[in-house]
Amino acid sequence: MEVVAVLSHLEISTSEQGNLQLEGKAWSIEGVETAHYSSRSVNYDQEDRTLYYSWGGKHPRDKGTPDYFGAGEVIFGPKDDIVYSQGDGWFSTTSSSDETDSHIKSTKYTRVTPEELELLRGTDHDELGKLILFKLRERQQV
Questions:
Q1: What angle do CA 17, 18, 20 make, to 5 degrees?
Q2: Residues 92 and 71: beta-carbon distance below 8 Å
Q3: For the whole model, what pTM was predicted?
């Protein structure tokens, strides 16, 4: 069964030991959480402004869906963007139950506003659904 996500939120932070870590969630067009994932390893190359990572994740609403894992990278740009507000990248996804079921997907990253972050971290599915539709429309205009 393919679980379709139309919007994801990837949070980059540092652990108490100073290591980079990633945590993320993905939602369907209805605003229902379809996946959550976290990094297994992360490396940032300052010179080429690229974040390299491996990850593992689950689909919490469908217990019959296997866990997934993969790797990816985020290339931040342009160089004069000191707050890292946008990036391009790709990630691979592989099913833990069938390693031949593997895909590579391209993606765009944009920094969210504080208000959007509050919605993404919250539990208001109606407002989250509105945000998802807004982001989908915004993406089609790019």
A1: 120
A2: yes
A3: 0.84
pLDDT digits (tens, 9 = 90+) for 17-67: 999 999 999 988 877 888 999 999 999 999 999 999 999 999 887 777 889
Q: What is the DSSP string of 95-122?
A: ETTEEEEEEEEEEEEEPPPHHHHHHHHS
Tokens matching residue 8: 């994801």
For residue 61, how far is the Cα from the chain centroid? 18
**1 domain-assigned:** no
- What are the pLDDT digits (tens) for 68-111? 999 999 999 888 878 888 999 999 999 898 888 899 999 989 89
Identify whether 134 is part of a domain: yes
Residue 2 in domain: no
The more confidently predicted of residues 6 and 127 is: 127
Instruction: Give the integer Cα–Cα distance in Å for 25 and 59.
Output: 10
Instruction: Tally Cβ neighbours within 10 Å of residue 138.
Output: 10
Structural domain boundaries, residue 83:
7-141
Question: How many domains are contained in the chain?
Answer: 1
Domain contains 87: yes
Helix ranges (DSSP H) in 2-142: 114-121, 125-141
